[in-house]
Design goal:
Layout (H helix, E strand, L loop, with lengths): L6 H5 L5 H31 L7 H4 L2 H5 L2 H11 L10
Helix pairs in contact: 2-5
Length: about 90
Amino acid sequence: MINKPSVEEMTNDELNRYELVIATAKCARLITDEYVEQRAYAEKLIERKETDKPISALIDKDIRDEKAVKNAVARLHDGEYTIIRPEE
């Protein structure tokens, strides 16, 4: 199984692998937090009987169905998130 995008494609000879791993982990945490917020909101709606939809229908499909790390890599690759390096 070949992972797309490749590490070389993600780093573009500008980042090392360590920086990529840290950035991916931080993005995955943001995505996980986003999922938790959406689920809590959906549970409140259901508890108050403001909707008859299941929880899965009230949560964004991308963060519900895919792993957080896979979403993080995709968002970094697409430029939705950027990696900011500290000044040296």
